[in-house]
């Protein structure tokens, strides 16, 4: 299934991405749909996180271009990029002993200068981010003392405090229990719909992706296999092609979105045989 890139402010143009001697993606092109909630899905080591790192300028493309607002991102000032893109990486480490409030406040650094350090606007942004991520009660605690789920919410608060129009989140639901996963996904969808933030998230749960995203990008082996609205692209054939999983697709009884139901092993073998017949 061919993919059709949608218009947006951020895009990768024919990029080749490598880690050491290993090529992850070659001649990959992707335009982040502006003002949409996009979810990238795919099996482990297929290039999802690598693409996100390249889009945020953490990883330099060996070939091709990453373009932000019509400019080559590698030539932009780091502060200008940080005022536009907020990134939640897959794993983060905080300085030893730092408090939650101080870590969240670091999200305001791109908005400050030597002449103007801390403002009422900064204070309000940090308070809003902590309230939104539900970490207000943790403000004076050391990040070192927190559980994995609490830390994840603190890092999300720091990204929110950055107040960028584009949010890139690599597996943001990691370490979160199911209730906090749904709370976070509702938060991200709310930011997208009410404030117009462009959101790109890497998720492993296909059913969460179908329920919350309005644009899904399916990757395998460093390539984009398909992209589009969940109802347009999510088929049993695509799930088999990308994940090697036999399934059936039904309508979610609550939302009507595609719902992936894995088949029993025997049924999966039959489905695979039938698909290849």
UniProtKB/TrEMBL annotation:
Membrane association type: Peripheral membrane protein
Pfam families, sorted: ABC_tran (PF00005)
Record bears the keyword Cell membrane: yes
Domain of life the protein comes from: Bacteria
Chief subcellular location: membrane
GO molecular function: ATP binding; ATP hydrolysis activity
Any GO CC annotation of this UniProt entry: plasma membrane
InterPro entries for the chain: AAA+_ATPase, ABC_transporter-like_ATP-bd, ABC_transporter-like_CS, P-loop_NTPase, Siderophore_ABC-ATPase
Keyword Nucleotide-binding: yes
Compartments it resides in: Cell membrane
Gene3D superfamilies: P-loop containing nucleotide triphosphate hydrolases (3.40.50.300)
Domain spans labelled ABC transporter: 10-246
Gene Ontology biological-process entries: iron ion transport
Protein keywords: ATP-binding, Cell membrane, Ion transport, Iron, Iron transport, Membrane, Nucleotide-binding, Transport
PANTHER family for the chain: FE(3+) DICITRATE TRANSPORT ATP-BINDING PROTEIN FECE-RELATED, IRON(3+)-HYDROXAMATE IMPORT ATP-BINDING PROTEIN FHUC
Family the entry assigns: Belongs to the ABC transporter superfamily.
Name under which the protein is recorded: ABC transporter ATP-binding protein
Species whose genome carries this gene: Ectorhizobium quercum
Taxonomic path: Bacteria, Pseudomonadati, Pseudomonadota, Alphaproteobacteria, Hyphomicrobiales
